[in-house]
Amino acid sequence: MRIRRCAVVYFEPREQVEFDLAELLGGGDGLHRERRWLALAPHLGTEVEVDGDERELLGVLSPGQWIEADSIGADGGTLARLLRVGLLVSDAPEHAAMRERDESLRRTYWHPLAATLHAFTRWSGVDTVQNQKDSGTETAVAMRQVLGAPPVEAARRVGDDARVHLPRIAPTSFDDLLARRATCRNFDASRTLPFDVFAQVLQRVFAAQAEVRVTEDTVFLKKNVPSGGGLHPMECYLIVQHVDGVAPGLYHYQAQEHALEALPAPPKPLREFVMDMVAQQHWFADAHVVVMLSPRFDRTFWKYRHHAKGYRVVALEGGHLSQTLYLAATDAGLGAFITGAINEVELEQAFGLDPIHQGALAICGFGWRGPVMETAELDPAERVWQRAEGEPAAGVDKLGKPRIAYGQAQGGPRTVPGDSTMRFLVFAVLALASFGACAGDGMPKSLDIPAIVQQQKQIQADIIAERGHYKDLPAAKRTEVLSRQATMLQLLDGKTTDKQLSADERVDVFNTLEWIEVAINQESDDERMVCRREKPLGSTRTVRTCRTVADEREAKERARQELDGNNNRQMIR
């Protein structure tokens, strides 16, 4: 039997650190450290732990020269294990599968570092939403608190007086199209996408527009995006959910024929499948068309063999295509998105792809934007989400001041608040209008927990950024608002309805919201409503009472005067 080392393998000395009580009691730092060697071979795609003997043997064997196994005097157990895991390959029939994996990598002409990067950054079964919750980085405010200040948003290399300021040119229709480009995180699954619109977007973004035939087997396509070497390796696999005339399911898009090729259905409902593929980013799950960008590495590396820049030009093409998709979708009145947070392993399995030759680079999609922005979208100039002319915005009073969400009202137009600070509160008519459904004491009958959380997180972000209405909020008030918000949001974490709160907790939330509203609008505290749960004199039953701050102050003053009067009468007697 002849053997050789696999084509590409890197070794990582990794340290694992765990708490160790015995170490702490013994006078140490309480940490147990264990170091081990891991072999990273891209044709395997999984880490393999090796011991010292195995590492040394792999280090002396050639990846290109076959030698007889019994000529190196290696331990039989060591040799057998390395062959079994695929770090060594042989010409024996029992090792044919591992040998073919290694040969496949060699035939694709990967650069070794690029192959390793690609193989070991693929996800499987990742829930990125839960990961954000676990790390406390769900919002921009939370990221700032956990991660510290980010690098500056735009670099400056010289002083103000040394800059050459350029003129702002009058916008054209193309500028308007660019301004309306915004990632969509709210899709309307109740509307189907017309077949012609679906076809037009695919034609503009992914279709071959012309070709150059050098020889019968050497053809270069012309598309509407640039591509490294003019090779256009990107294939598009579709998950169609809501398109007229197209059965929901998986498809391959044939770029030359501008045609769909139906593929086997996934082993679970389509929306659930999409959720798994985009790592549980539920805001993308209802997109009418989901597109997996899938590069054929073997086509690009046919020209750029073992090239240090080959993988980079493939990744760049994903950016070219996604921006073209955004513009084509925006021009058609649709929303679009792209995400790199995907579970590549499951995508490869569902579409029958070998990641050595063809992988999953990103997922994008398009469809009708929903009427309500339930998940925040970045549209600071209000080019996508706009309030109706002359109408007060949801969560904003007629003076443009932000109003706090309590309970969710019914209906409402597809609009957002006009004040930039409240732009992301888009539950129509959420705010004080909900007091139409108040309890008799002035507190809403129910609290819309999701609406409250979403609005308060956006207010947090705007206060931190000193945006819009909040830029003039005094520093001390800003700090106190953020502190009270953090306490309230911690209480509401993981809750979807106010029935998950105790009666006292509901009152606390209401009081906090009332205080925040007065604080951020810099209004008089007298009109702020304060609710309490207390037992009236002579009763064992707890009731809720709500009064304004001014009413409470007057009641206390009356009580004080009555007490003083009683004391005076007693003294006179």
What keywords describe this structure?
disordered C terminus, 16 strands, 3 domains, 17 helices, 35% helix, three-stranded antiparallel beta sheet, NADH Oxidase, 573 residues, globular, alpha+beta
**What helical percentage do the residues reach?**
25-40%
**Amino- and carboxy-terminal Cα gap:** 119 Å
Shape: globular
Number of strands: 16
Q: Report the C-alpha radius of gyration, rounded.
A: 32 Å
Beta-strand proportion: 15-25%
Largest sheet: 6 strands, antiparallel
DSSP summary: helix tally:
17
Sequence of strands across the biggest β-sheet: 11-10-9-12-14-13
> pLDDT below 50 for ≥5 consecutive residues: which ranges?
391-400, 408-440, 567-573
Domain count, please report it. 3
Structure, explained:
With 573 residues, this protein is of the alpha+beta class. It folds into 3 domains: 2-108, no CATH class; 142-148 and 177-367, NADH Oxidase (3-Layer(aba) Sandwich), CATH 3.40.109.10; 374-573, no CATH class. 35% of the residues lie in helices and 16% in strands. The protein contains 17 helices and 16 strands. The protein has helices at residues 21-25, 52-60, 76-85, 96-108, 112-120, 128-135, 140-147, 173-179, 195-205, 270-277, 297-303, 310-331, 344-351, 449-465, 475-492, 503-520, 549-572; strands at residues 2-5, 10-19, 31-40, 47-50, 67-68, 88-90, 210-215, 218-222, 234-240, 249-254, 259-262, 289-295, 335-339, 362-367, 529-534, 543-548. A 6-stranded antiparallel beta sheet has the order 11-10-9-12-14-13, with helices on one face. A 3-stranded antiparallel beta sheet has the order 5-1-6. Strand 15 and strand 16 form a beta hairpin. Helix 9 packs antiparallel against helix 12 and helix 14 (449-465) packs antiparallel against helix 15. It is globular, with a radius of gyration of 32 Å. It starts with a strand and ends with a helix. The model is unreliable at 391-400, 408-440 and 567-573 (pLDDT under 50).
